[in-house]
């Protein structure tokens, strides 16, 4: 059995040991029609039903795995285990009670990462399933053979996201393609296409944090902050040597711990590093001139 390293392992027993093995050839997405995190999904499978999925995904992107991906899970009807030994990997995702809401960005990001993993681990081809037993990726309502009596799962909004954002994101990430260009670089897009491309771009572009460098820059944001701190400290010390013109101005030195604390406060917006450097220089120049 295979366990995804990006998930919290919450192994269901006795199902994990007692259910038959599968050769996973499909990855099928569901909505659970409940605003549950991965632990609550696990508890539901454990305590309230004899059904289960391989994975459970919360709104915030946290992921639980309940059964290894080479063991049958009972979420996809006839796709669970076929006579030839193949079967589907399933993921239930938190939603509203009617599963009419879209996936959050955090959910889509994790679906993309997990999709890449199942492709690389099990050789599931990068295509949307063409028939109910075709190898590939899909969602619960894609084929009637995947549900008992039909279903709208995972819901229209999420089906649209699957086709326009999630599955293209899996393909792009699996192929090592660079993130799509930002919408401002495409003049012939409709507003809806631009929004979708930006969302996909944000999903596929890792957060740079303090490794961020502006266009043409030779140093990252953290180095710029440290340099600005050192320059400001040196300048204030120099003022103190010749006689400060600013009443009460002292020459503080930022320690590494203080710089790190400041970095934490603005890490959510790495572009602020350039603004910090400009602000330090402007404020110092203003105070020296008075």
Give the tags:
290 residues, alpha/beta, 6-stranded mixed sheet, 8 helices, 6 strands, elongated
How would you describe this protein?
This protein is α/β, with parallel strands linked by helices. Helices cover 40% and strands 10% of the residues. It contains 8 helices and 6 strands. It has helices spanning 15-18, 38-47, 105-122, 156-174, 191-204, 221-242, 256-266, 272-289; strands spanning 8-9, 23-31, 55-57, 63-65, 86-93, 136-139. Helix 4 (156-174) packs across helix 5 (191-204) and helix 6 runs parallel beside helix 8 (272-289). Residues 179-187 and 244-251 have low confidence and may be disordered.
Strands of the widest sheet, in order across it, are 1-4-3-5-2-6
Provide the structure class: alpha/beta
Listing every helix as H and every strand as E from the N terminus to the C terminus, the arrangement reads EHEHEEEHEHHHHH
Range of strand content = 5-15%
Low-confidence stretches: 179-187, 244-251
Q: DSSP helix count?
A: 8
Shape: elongated
Give a nutshell description of this structure:
This protein has 290 residues and is an alpha/beta fold. It has helices spanning 15-18, 38-47, 105-122, 156-174, 191-204, 221-242, 256-266, 272-289; strands at residues 8-9, 23-31, 55-57, 63-65, 86-93, 136-139. Helix 6 runs parallel beside helix 8 (272-289).
């Amino acid at each position: 059995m295979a366990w995804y390293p990006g998930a919290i392992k919450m192994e269901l027993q006795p199902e994990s040991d007692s259910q038959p093995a599968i050769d996973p050839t499909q990855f099928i997405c569901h909505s659970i029609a409940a605003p549950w995190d991965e632990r609550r999904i696990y508890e539901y499978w454990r305590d309230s039903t004899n059904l289960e999925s391989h994975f459970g995904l919360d709104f915030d992107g946290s992921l639980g795995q309940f059964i290894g991906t080479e063991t049958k899970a009972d979420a996809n009807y006839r796709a669970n285990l076929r006579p030839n030994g193949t079967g589907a990997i399933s993921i239930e995702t938190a939603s509203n009670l009617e599963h009419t809401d879209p996936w959050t960005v955090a959910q889509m990001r994790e679906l993309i990462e997990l999709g890449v993993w199942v492709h690389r681990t099990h050789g599931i081809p990068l295509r949307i399933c063409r028939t109910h037993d075709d190898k590939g990726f899909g969602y619960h309502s894609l084929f009637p053979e995947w549900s008992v009596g039909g279903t709208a799962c995972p819901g229209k909004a999420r089906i649209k996201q699957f086709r326009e954002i999630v599955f293209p994101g899996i393909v792009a990430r699996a192929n090592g393609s660079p993130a799509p260009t930002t919408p401002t670089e495409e003049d012939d897009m409709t507003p809806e296409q631009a929004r979708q491309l930006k969302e996909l771009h944000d999903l596929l572009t890792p957060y740079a944090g303090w490794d961020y460098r502006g266009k043409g820059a030779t140093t990252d944001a953290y180095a710029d902050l440290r340099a600005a701190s050192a320059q400001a400290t040196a300048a204030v010390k120099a003022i103190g040597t010749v006689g400060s013109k600013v009443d009460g101005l002292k020459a503080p030195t930022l320690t590494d711990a203080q710089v790190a604390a400041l970095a934490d406060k603005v890490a959510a917006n790495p572009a602020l590093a350039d603004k910090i450097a400009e602000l330090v220089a402007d404020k110092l120049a203003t105070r020296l001139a008075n």
